Amino acid sequence: MTALSETIEVGIVTHNIDTMCHFYGNTLGLAFEGKLDFPGGTMHRYRLGTAVIKLVNYGDETPEQCIPGGGHAACGYRYISFGVADLNSVIAQLKAANVGIAVDVTRFAENIGFAFVCDPDGNWIELFGGC
Fold it and tell me: pLDDT (tens digit, 0 to 9) for every residue of the chain, 131 residues total?
């Protein structure tokens, strides 16, 4: 396979498009790249470094429910990961914003750790970095 780009784009289908856009754009502070209307739905694109998170809604055809949780909830793609400069500070800010914390800061090496937070649909996001 010859890749057309050197990045990855992750699609998250949601029934709660406005709430999810607020979370990824405002709460996490990802840069809004644009909205794309396509036959049968819309996509809101948020940039994370070179990667793109695509929030997708299919109107009335969007499923009402997702399987929330991380790797223990179901098989398949279960979470996304990205690094942050000060993990403890980021988690404290997210707690203050009432974001669900699935796994609090856990050290796995000297001054390096990870945590898992939940988006409004219950999808897990791993944050890792210095702590």
Answer: 887 888 899 999 999 999 999 999 999 999 999 999 999 999 999 999 999 999 999 998 888 778 888 888 888 888 999 999 999 999 999 999 999 999 999 999 888 999 999 999 999 999 999 98
Q: Provide the whole-model pTM.
A: 0.90
* CA pair distance 76, 108, nearest whole angstrom: 24
What are φ and ψ of residue 19, in 5° steps? -65, -40
CA 103 to chain centre: 15
The residues, ordered by sequence, that sit 6+ positions from 26 with a Cβ below 8 Å of its Cβ are: none
Tell me the two tokens of residue 89.
């500070």
Q: Which residues are CB-neighbours of 105 under 8 A, at least 6 positions away?
A: 87, 88, 91, 113, 114, 115, 131
Q: What is the Cα–Cα distance from 78 to 125, expressed in whole angstroms?
A: 9
